[in-house]
């Protein structure tokens, strides 16, 4: 099993370790609910070094990124990042990812842990004819996420980087705990916060200093369990569950990231066709009306007919109820529509607005 | 940790036998494995359970786990408090977090269960 550079630190903190796509990762430290609420109310620190990092550089780096992803990477400039996807010619997902413009000829793609090798191979298989170099740096980077309303206050005194002025989806380079880092105002929790990338051989210096400075804010280390419940409340996609090679970007409700006017990209033709014809199913959020908790793969029925499966489903620690996502035929996607989920027996669920959780505006 | 007067199953249920009734719950080991318990599905009073039949489920944020009846018998009471406070299973799995009470059908089935000392030894085998 692969281990992040913080493996020993997690075990020292008593993290409950599990295998996650070949990585030994903490699923929880003090308890999923407590960790979840710490991020919503104060701050939490995550080790997400299992995430993959692929660097595309060279004269035609932008051209290749533009070809592989539906969002418009030409709108990026050094210091800016965007959410995007690697799309198949069918307009479905190879992966979803963040694209960081390191400079005009260098882009960092942050991809899912489970997909980093697949994505790397995918990019290699499409790089022919482009003057680029593609490197899989997944094992070199440590990635931490500091998330929550107090994240800025905690991190600010640790670095010269002007974090206060850093807007969402912007990033900068600097030092934290004496180590060279890239810090972006991004995350996977629905809260304000930062993601910290470093090639340092001693990333535990950063991990430990954030934990220490966070003590007075009641910051908690957070495992993958709460990472999943946090992202689901914010309706952030989980690859392999909510999106995959059979779901299109439009069906997933991510049409906003498809910029048809930017020129050709993999999947453009089919997505355009689907946009014109209209989608026939859509990813919706639901809550259970009956008792129970819907889990991934539970069967979904409308008017007695099986139509799909739950893609994500859990108990929401913030709302204290069962929530989830599933694809429904378009005619049944209106808010308030009731349908059934087979949780041991069939139970009623209802389509609700998403995201389930939206962080309060700053006062 | 594990009360001496309880019987234990390999599926991590406990049974406290008094005369012909047994109180049933899941063990401290089981609740720790599950993490925060957020939902318990209880059987109806009057349900007849066979030895090792699923009597309901305990769900944590992350996982679902069947609860198997450690003895056969008829359900004479369920812990209604778990509907509103499933966390009792985490807080006091061997006490306030009890799940059902059974009228035991065949007391000799306790021979298939473990004593506290045997269960602790069994856990050592799992945790290694």
Write the layout of secondary structure elements.
The complex is a heterodimer of chains A (363) and B (128).
Chain A: E1 2-3, H1 7-12, E2 16-20, E3 23-28, H2 32-41, E4 44-47, E5 52-57, H3 61-68, E6 81-87, E7 93-103, E8 106-111, H4 116-126, E9 133-136, E10 142-147, H5 151-155, E11 171-176, E12 179-184, E13 193-198, H6 204-214, E14 220-222, H7 224-233, H8 268-277, E15 281-288, E16 299-302, E17 305-316, E18 321-329, E19 338-343, E20 345-352
Parallel strand pairs in A: 1-3, 4-14
Antiparallel strand pairs in A: 2-3, 4-10, 5-8, 5-9, 6-7, 7-8, 10-13, 11-12, 12-13, 15-18, 15-20, 16-17, 16-19, 17-18, 19-20
Helix pairs in contact in A: 2-7
Chain B: E1 6-8, E2 13-18, E3 21-26, H1 28-34, E4 37-41, E5 48-49, E6 54-60, E7 64-68, E8 73-78, H2 81-84, H3 88-91, E9 100-104, H4 116-127
Antiparallel strand pairs in B: 1-2, 2-3, 3-9, 4-6, 5-8, 6-7, 8-9
Total helical segments of chain A: 8
Distance between the termini of chain B: 19 Å
Beta fraction of the residues of chain B? 35-45%
Q: Structural class, judged by helices and strands of chain A?
A: alpha+beta
* Second rung of CATH, namely the architecture of chain B: Beta Barrel
Based on CA atoms alone, the radius of gyration of chain B comes out at 13 Å
**Number of folding domains of chain B?**
1
Query: Could you name the CATH class of the domain at 2-51 and 141-233 in chain A?
Result: Alpha Beta
Q: What is the total tally of β strands of chain A?
A: 20
Oligomer: heterodimer
The largest pleated sheet of chain B is described as: 6 strands, antiparallel
Biggest interchain interface, per-side counts? A-B, 19 and 11 residues
CATH topology of the domain at 2-51 and 141-233 in chain A: Gyrase A, domain 2
Give me the side-by-side strand order of the main sheet of chain A. Answer: 11-12-13-10-4-14
Number of strands of chain B: 9
Largest sheet of chain A at a glance?
A: 6 strands, mixed
- Gyration radius of chain A, rounded: 20 Å
């Amino acid at each position: 099993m692969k281990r992040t550079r913080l493996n020993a630190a997690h075990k020292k903190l008593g993290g409950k370790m599990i295998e996650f796509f070949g990585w030994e990762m903490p699923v929880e430290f003090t308890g999923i609910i407590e960790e979840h609420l710490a991020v919503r109310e104060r701050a939490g620190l995550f080790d997400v070094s299992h995430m993959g990092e692929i660097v595309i550089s060279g004269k035609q780096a932008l051209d290749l990124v533009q070809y592989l992803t539906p969002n418009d990477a030409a709108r990026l400039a050094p210091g800016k990042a965007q959410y995007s996807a690697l799309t198949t010619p069918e307009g479905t997902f190879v992966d979803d990812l963040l694209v960081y413009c390191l400079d005009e000829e260098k882009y960092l793609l942050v991809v899912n842990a489970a997909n980093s090798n697949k994505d790397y191979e995918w990019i290699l298989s499409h790089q022919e004819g482009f003057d680029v170099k593609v490197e899989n740096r997944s094992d070199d980077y440590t990635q931490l996420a500091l998330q929550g309303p107090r994240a800025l206050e905690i991190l600010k005194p640790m670095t010269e980087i002007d974090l206060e002025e850093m807007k969402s989806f912007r990033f900068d380079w600097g030092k934290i705990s004496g180590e060279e880092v890239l810090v972006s105002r991004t995350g996977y929790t629905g809260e304000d916060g930062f993601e910290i990338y470093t090639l340092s051989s001693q990333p535990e210096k950063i991990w430990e200093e954030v934990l220490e400075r966070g003590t007075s804010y009641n910051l908690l280390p957070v495992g993958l369990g709460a990472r999943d419940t946090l992202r689901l409340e914010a309706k952030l996609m989980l690859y392999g569950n909510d999106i995959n090679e059979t779901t299109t970007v439009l069906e997933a409700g991510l049409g906003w990231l498809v910029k048809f006017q930017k020129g050709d990209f993999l999947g453009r033709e089919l997505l355009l066709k689907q946009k014109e014809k209209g989608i026939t199913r859509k990813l919706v959020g639901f809550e259970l009306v009956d008792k129970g908790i819907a889990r991934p793969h539970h069967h979904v029925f409308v008017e007695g007919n099986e139509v799909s499966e739950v893609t994500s489903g859990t108990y929401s620690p913030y709302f204290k109820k069962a929530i989830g996502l599933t694809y429904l035929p378009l005619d049944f996607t209106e808010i308030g529509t009731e349908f059934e989920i087979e949780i041991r027996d069939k139970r009623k669920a209802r389509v609700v607005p998403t995201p389930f959780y939206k962080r309060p505006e700053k006062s | 940790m594990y009360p001496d007067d309880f019987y234990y199953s390999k599926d991590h249920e406990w049974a406290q036998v008094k005369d012909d009734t047994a109180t049933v719950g899941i063990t401290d080991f089981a609740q720790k494995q599950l993490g925060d318990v957020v939902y318990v599905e209880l059987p109806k009073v009057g349900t007849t359970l066979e030895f090792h039949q699923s009597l309901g489920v305990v769900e944590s944020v992350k996982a679902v786990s069947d609860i198997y009846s450690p003895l056969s018998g008829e359900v004479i009471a369920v812990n209604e408090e778990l509907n509103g406070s499933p966390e009792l299973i985490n807080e006091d799995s061997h006490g306030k977090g009890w799940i059902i009470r059974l009228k035991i059908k065949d007391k000799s089935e306790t021979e298939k269960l473990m004593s506290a000392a045997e269960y602790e030894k069994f856990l050592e085998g799992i945790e290694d």
